[in-house]
Amino acid sequence: MSIPDLGREGLSQTFSKCEKVWLLFPSTKENLRLYASSAGFSNWLARIGSDLHGGIIVETTSAHALDLPAGTLHAVFTTASGFLGGINYSTSESLPTMSRLLIAHLPIFRHVSNAVLEDLQIYTNALLSTLDMDAPELVPYALRSWVDLCLHLQNLLDSEHASAQLICHVSEAQRKLQKFARNTHYALQCVCGYYVDDIGEHFAASHMLEVGLENLRSRPVDISAGNKRKRDSN
Model's pTM, two decimal places? Predict the structure, then answer.
């Protein structure tokens, strides 16, 4: 199970005589915290399995298709060999879950940065696609997920672990969010608690990140290491 897999819903089905047993756990705050603590280890289930809660066991054959909600922690065991087919997909309704997953993984960004960046890309693609739909009934899902994520993402951007890739990606996403704010003008109850006459104006004023090149912290350069490489090349 990879981090990006968790952020999307998944539909899986076995073929021929293939049989599998699935251990499934819901994406509660505590379960996600436990999973984040085991990220990067291949034996994550052995490390945290006894502490996870709400789990169920499902056995599938070619007569079944299994639809996993976003954020479902899962481990799969093959009891009869064969083929497994499946797709991952994102929905507007799963945006708050995707946000919770990112919040759980941001504290370990420096250890699994590529996976978190991929997860962030999947989330922002779904977020921006939702806001481009001109479907006001879906906007609360998008705004709730972003407002929940903002503080945690800002803390990472302000830390010494912020990378150029992270800053560039967040900057691009925020430019598109600012476009949504400029073009959206209707009354709405924001998830931060305020009922506002202009959700776009409120969103731009209250829920944007401070992001730019100033987020890149200078890091000490090991001159002796550079000189050693130069001597070795000679």
Answer: 0.75
The one-character DSSP state at 82 is -
For the record, the structure tokens of 26 come out as: 């819901």
Which residue in 135, 154, 163 sits closest to 207, CA to CA? Answer: 154
The closest of 159, 158, 199, 193 to 177, measured between CA atoms, is 199
Quote the CA–CA distance of 64 and 19 in Å, as a whole number.
10
Nearest-Å Rg of the Cα atoms of the chain is 21
How far is it, in rounded angstroms, from Cα 84 to Cα 112? 27
Find where tokens 């309704």 sit.
Answer: 93
How is residue 107 annotated by DSSP?
Answer: G
What are 65-89's pLDDT values in tens digits?
Answer: 999 888 888 889 999 998 999 888 8
